[in-house]
Amino acid sequence: MRPKNFIVAIVLAIALATGIFAAVRLKTPAEPAAAFVLPAPTPLPEFSLIDQFGKAVTVDSFEDHWSLVFFGFTHCPDICPATLQILSAAKSELEAAGQAPLPRIVLVSVDPERDDPELIGNYVDYFGKGNLGVTGNLDELKKLTAGLGIYFEKQAGDADNYGVDHSAAVLLINPDGQFHALFSAPHRTANYVHDIPLIVAGH
Amino acid sequence: MRYCFFCAALLLAACGMESQPPLVANDVVVSAPMPGMKMSAAYMSLTNNSGQTLRISRVTSPQYESAELHETTMEDGIARMRALPDLKISAGATVTLQRGAKHLMLTRPAGNSDTVTLQFFDGDDLILTVDATPESRID
User: Fold this and answer.
1) Where are the alpha helices (DSSP H) in A44-129?
2) Which element (helix H / strand E) includes A180?
3) Phi, psi for residue A17 in degrees, rounded to 5
4) What is the ipTM metric for this complex?
5) Dist. CA B91–CA A48, nearest whole Å
6) b/e per residue, B36-67, with b = 16+ CB within 10 A?
7) Contact B69, B86 (CB under 8 A)
8) What predicted TM-score, i.e. pTM, was given to this entire model?
9) How far is it, in rounded angstroms, from Cα A103 to Cα A170?
10) Which of A150, A192, A199, B37 could form a disulfide with A145 if both were Cys (CB 3.0 to 4.6 A apart)?
11) Three-class SS state of B10
12) Chain B residue closest to A165 (CA)?
């Protein structure tokens, strides 16, 4: 083989190898990086709460939407607003990237004693349009949280100055009203932006 | 003459001490209360330049009825918030008050104010005064 042909052969071999490598890489499907996707999505338990407009919230309310559900309370100045900010920023980024359908942000109050519909409504509205605030009867709330493995417990304090310990996870509910995936704390905007389109597309 | 020189040196030393406050706050963020809410939070880093351990035993603000040191902890996926009795900062150390960790919880604002003043006490000694403009949580 003449030296010139030899060089051409090497160049072709490298090009072929690069092409095969790229094809293999591209064929590997991207997977959610942060979310834990349930192997089999589980239906939400039966419960009856109300939203910020006083309208009933039941399992049916979760149909036809992807929902990012966070359990928190309005008298929580640190972690709750920080989480809602992250979810809101993620939703804006997903919207800007053309993601459809977009998930709805839902805050379920673990402090229904203080969180009346007006209070929780003002709170969720602050973090963007279309957010849902859920509150209501404590026993009904417990049906929902127990069914999803969400913990909350009111702490000692004055009548208007007490905290509520609560699970910090964000649950992704699919449009069939099923618990589909879980994002554990610490929450990062980039995790939601990366994972949600993949989970939605894979449903 | 030598005595006067000594006085001047003392005076200079005193001035030097005054220009170096015992506790310094950086990256101060005070959030504005959300609509309808009577509480907010403040974050910053605090550096102890005093040469000895400082103990923040009390924080007050003219714009809030109460300012408390709190800590959010995250364990086994559960967020908890607890009041801290005090905050000790060793000589030369920096403690950061940040989201999801130690922070100041401000409750019951006295009204809408353009500036929030925070006063940090070690016992009866006022060791730091911070002025900040409350920030909205959404840009």
Assistant:
1) 79-96, 117-125
2) strand A178-183
3) -60, -45
4) 0.78
5) 55
6) ebbbbbbbbebbbebeeebebbbbebebbeeb
7) yes
8) 0.83
9) 12
10) A150
11) helix
12) B80
CB spacing of B137 vs A125 below 8 angstroms: no
The Cα of B113 is separated from the nearest Cα of chain A by a number of Å equal to: 18
Alpha-carbon gap, residue B41 to B53, rounded angstroms: 25
Angstrom CA distances, A186 to A22, A29, A133, A161, A191, stand at 34, 26, 22, 26, 10
CA distance A110 to A144: 11
Question: DSSP class of residue A78?
Answer: S
Helices and strands per DSSP (H, E), number in chain A: 5, 10
Instruction: Report the C-alpha gap between A78 and A159 in whole angstroms.
Output: 20
For residues A180 and B106, give the distance between their C-alpha atoms in angstroms, rounded to a whole number.
Answer: 37
State the CB neighbour count (10 A cutoff) for residue A182. 17
Contact A78 B82 (CB under 8 A): no
Residues A125-135: pLDDT tens digits? Answer: 999 999 999 99
Contacts of A105 in chain B (CB under 8 A): none
Contact: B37, A123; criterion CB under 8 Å? yes
Q: What is the pLDDT along chain B (139 residues), one digit of tens a residue?
A: 455 555 555 444 554 455 678 999 999 999 998 888 889 999 999 999 999 999 999 999 999 999 999 999 999 999 999 999 999 999 999 999 999 999 999 999 987 788 999 999 999 999 999 999 999 876 5
Q: Number of helices (H) and strands (E) in chain B: give both, helices first.
A: 1, 11
Burial A53-68 (b: 16+ CB within 10 A, else e): eeeebebebbeebbbb
> Shortest CA distance to B79 belongs to which of A186, A171, A87?
A186
